[in-house]
Amino acid sequence: MSFHQFFRILWARRALILLTTVAALIAALLVIRIVPQRYDATSRVMLDLVKPDPVSGEGISAAFARAYTKTQSELIRDYRVAGRVVDQLGWTRSPLYVAAYRARDPDDKRDLRRWLAQLVIDRTKVGLIDSSNILEITTSSTTPESARVIADALRQAYIDQTLSFKRDDAAQAAGWFEQQAQQLRTRLSEAEAKKSAFERANGVLLEGDTTDSEEARLKVLASTSAVPAPSVAAPAVAAASPMAGQLAQIDAQIAVAARTLGPNNPTLIALQQQRGAIAQAAGREAAATRAAARGGAVASGPSLDSLYRQQQQKVLAQRGKVAEARQLATDVVLLRDQYAKTAARAADLQRQAASTDTGLTVLGSAVAPSNPAFPNKRLIILGALALGLGLGMVVSVFMELLRRRVRGADDLRLAGVPVLGALSPLPAPAQTGLDRLTTTLGLPRLGHSPA
User: Residues 142-162: pLDDT tens digits?
Assistant: First the structure.
């Protein structure tokens, strides 16, 4: 079918096309008149994906950002958030909504709050603005003001629910860490008591939780035994004394331990007690040396080599006990470290549970729309005109195919009928003034007989 044939069909059935177009336009006007108007209000909130948490210092990775934004979009349309909106707006006490709820489908078994929350969910759309971290919350209602109120209430309910989730999770985790810290503290106290009891029962004293005092004394003797013995009258006798060297070593250990341990720590107390005992022994030794020097006699007593051998035998004899004491000390160190980390984590979670930061930034308030989003009058009218024209054209072609008519030589060629000739209409003869007058008066023209 050529364009000329198609155009002749449409022109021949122009009345039908005009009728369908007018009918579609009337239907569109009725829809605009009958269908209730719907207004859309939009509120926005920015997700602080880049800024770390002010308490924990943790941030959201780029790989998790897409899943996070999708989760937030679904959370806004969740029953918990929509239920907060229903409570905030007081819809459960509205006679209008209560009457609509009573007129619902009898098969609907939902309660009033959930039924109203579903209305909010059905009228809500959430989307992330392209190339940004801004969530756009769009709600619909029958009036501009109610749409604005619902949009702001929904955003505030989402912020409140996000803060509630964050606080509840942090509080729950903090409670668990506090429980673990209490258990570790009990185990640490038991381990320290067990270590102290073992040291008292076996005469083993570890310095700094790992060094045996007898081994430390052996090292001092080993370092001084190689030095030639000074004369009695020399003033360096006290300095070369093993007790003096051991006293200087334990003073250094006490200074280091005081910076890391508390004043009531069992290890620090043991070091101080050991220091007092060594100081007394060193005092007695210095007094004896001075007394011998005043009497002019040479101090008698065991040599450094004999003292070194005696100390060596003592260290070898209690090596097994020292190893066991070191194992107990290692358990204490591990439990002390675990307790410190667990208590610190519990404190961090407690601060998170008391924090008011939600990681969300409110961007203005929703504005009442001036024009309805539905029905779109211009779009409906244009669509009705297009639908009416299209329907009229389709019906015209369909009717032509059912009852074909010859409207031109092209129609005969299409049917396979040979065309012998075609007559074109002759132009009407020009009328003179007399002919127009006789035509007006209803008289026969000259040269023509009346029919």
Answer: 889 999 999 999 999 999 999
Q: Is 107 helix (H, G, I), strand (E, B) or coil?
A: coil
Laid out side by side, the sheet with 124-128 consists of: 124-128, 134-141, 39-47, 360-363
| Nearest CA-CA partner of 146 in 122, 120, 117 | 120
Q: Interhelix angle for 319-353 vs 304-317, to 10°?
A: 70
Contact in structure between 309 and 206 (CB atoms under 8 Å): no
- The number of angstroms, rounded, from the C-alpha of 50 to the middle of its chain's C-alpha atoms is 11
408-450 confidence digits (pLDDT tens): 666 666 556 666 666 666 565 555 565 655 555 555 554 544 4
Q: Is the dihedral of CA 63, 66, 71, 76 positive or negative?
A: positive
Token pair belonging to 353:
């549970």
Predicted local confidence at residue 396, as pLDDT: 86
- Rounded CA-CA distance 386/118 in Å is 36
- The alpha carbon of 20 is separated from its chain's Cα centroid by a whole number of angstroms, namely 55
* Whole-angstrom Cα Rg for the chain: 52
Question: What is the DSSP secondary-structure string of 304-355?
Answer: HHHHHHHHHHHHHHTHHHHHHHHHHHHHHHHHHHHHHHHHHHHHHHHHHHT-
- Which range has the top average pLDDT, 180-194, 217-231, 261-275, 279-293? 180-194
Burial of 49: CB neighbours in 10 Å, binned 0-12, 13-18, 19+: middle
What per-residue confidence (pLDDT) applies to 274?
75
Q: Please, which pLDDT band fits residue 451 given cuts at 50, 70 and 90?
A: very low
How far apart (Å, rounded) are the C-alpha atoms in residues 249 and 322? 19
Q: Residue 286: pLDDT above 70? A: no
SS3 per residue for 78-101: CHHHHHHHHHHHCHHHCHHHHHHH
Residues 6+ apart with CB under 8 A from 293: 232, 233, 237
| 295 closest CA partner among 237, 231, 233, 230 | 233
Q: Which two tokens stand for residue 280?
A: 């007394």
